[in-house]
What we know:
Elements: H1 10-13, E1 16-19, E2 30-34, H2 47-56, E3 66-70, H3 79-89, E4 95-98, H4 101-115, E5 125-129, H5 138-148, E6 154-159, E7 162-168
Parallel strand pairs: 1-5, 2-3, 3-4, 5-6
Antiparallel strand pairs: 6-7
Amino acid sequence: MEIQENIVNKVAMSGLTTLDPASFYPKGERVLYDIKDNLYMELILREKDFREFVKGHDWSQYAGKNVGVTCTADAIVPAWAYMLLANRLAPYAADVVFGDLDALESVLFLKEIQKADLEQYRDQRIVLKGCGDIPVPVSAYVELTRVLTPVAKSLMYGEPCSTVPIYKRKE
Length: 171
C-alpha cells in the first residue's frame, strides 16, 4: 500500500511579509575618534593645543568613513570641542555622530530606515526578522515598529514559523 503525503507550506500560505531589518544595513567603514588622545594627562582639554591639533591634523584619512566621536576618558569635554571635530570631519566623512560605535550604528540604521519607502507595506501582515548574519541594533527594531505601526495591518517579531505579536490593527 502506497501512502502519498502532501506537504503543505503553511508559512507560504499565511500571507505574511518578512522584512529583514538587516536590509537597512548602512554601508561604509565605521571608525571611532576618541578625543581622549587630545587631553592633557587624559583629564583636561587645553583649548590652544586642541585648536592647533585640529588645524594641523590630516582629516582626509576619514574620507568616506562613518565616524563616531566620543571621549572614553573620565573628563569633562566642552561641547565646542566636539563641534570643532564635526566641522573638520564633515567635508570628508560619510557621516559624523556623537557617541561610541554602538551609537554610530544606531544612527546609521535610523537614517536608512527614514529614507525607506514603507508604503509598500501598507495593510500587510509583517514579520520583522529576528535573527540574521548582520547584528541589528534594538534601536532599529524600535524605529521600524514606530514607522510601520501606522502602515501595517499587523506587526510581528521573529520568524514566520514562530512569531511574537507586537501590533494588530483593530478593524
